[in-house]
Amino acid sequence: MQPEPVTTTTPRPVERTLFTQGWRDLAFLHWAVDPALVAPHLPAGTVPDTLDGVTYVGLIPFRMRRIGFFGLPGLPYLGSFAETNVRLYSVDERGRRGVVFASLEADRLLPVAAARWAARLPYVYARMRVTRDGDLRRYTSLRRWPGPVTAHSAITVRVGEAITDPGPVERFLTSRWGLHEPFYGRTAYWANEHPEWPLHRAELVELDESLTAAAGVPVTGAPDSVLFSPGVDVRFGWLSSR
């Protein structure tokens, strides 16, 4: 089946809210890679989503803000923390585009444990920090549990001008309306919705990371795309399976 079109808003509005999240101060670093590098890391029933013959490995640090459940107000402490994701791009047998998380670093131990147990997501506990200095954003992470405890990242970007008309690559990398993941013996799809991304160009100032290698999808050299967004508020719906 052909993948669904890339759209700036969700093609599947969430009818029943399972949980809500605020994503803030996101840096999007992406490397174009051979789909064969990514394919072994995707769940059954999905293949690498490609653009012009390549797929991407994303390294995305940000601030999570106030996770909430069932439409209730978000949690101010346990639901707010720094996070850094290594993510891959997938499409399933129904043509639904999504992301697959190779790893998710977070600096709140209880949410990490809960997400690993209940949602089966590969969260890990890390010592992390997000700082702002004018137009600079700096994100640091050092893994604590489970290992390898040497896995780390230090990323600094300089935020540039707003992108008024995102191109095909920017839309492909950010217009993602679901999550594919292995879930108790099947492949689950969690749909989400949020406003169109406000995107900015960004300059990479510092990059020292081993998170992609720890996730099994090592990248080398400078990223092919560097973007920034002040963020969006997100709703996730109930999962569906293959």
Structural class call reads: mainly beta
Taking all Cα atoms into account, the compactness measure Rg is 17 Å
Level of helix content? 10-25%
Low-confidence stretches: none
- Termini Cα gap: 14 Å
Backbone shape: globular
Q: Order of SSEs, N→C?
A: EHEEEEHEEEHEEEHEE
Helical segment tally? Answer: 4
Strand order of the largest sheet: 1-3-4-5-6-7-8-11-12
**Record field, number of beta strands:** 13
* Overall pLDDT: 94
Largest sheet: 9 strands, mixed, barrel
**Which strand-content bin applies to the residues?**
over 45%
Structure overview:
The protein is mostly beta strands and 242 residues long. 11% of the residues lie in helices and 53% in strands. It is built from four helices and 13 strands. The protein has a nine-stranded mixed barrel with strand order 1-3-4-5-6-7-8-11-12. Strand 6 (123-133) and strand 7 (136-145) form a beta hairpin. It is globular, with a radius of gyration of 17 Å. The model has no long low-confidence stretch (mean pLDDT 94).
Write the SSE topology.
Layout: E1 17-33, H1 35-38, E2 46-48, E3 55-69, E4 81-92, E5 97-106, H2 109-119, E6 123-133, E7 136-145, E8 152-162, H3 168-174, E9 178-183, E10 186-193, E11 200-209, H4 211-214, E12 225-237, E13 240-241
Parallel strand pairs: 5-6
Antiparallel strand pairs: 1-3, 1-12, 2-4, 3-4, 4-5, 6-7, 7-8, 8-11, 9-10, 10-12, 10-13, 11-12
List keywords for this structure.
242 residues; mainly beta; nine-stranded mixed β-barrel; 4 helices; 13 strands; 11% helix; 53% strand
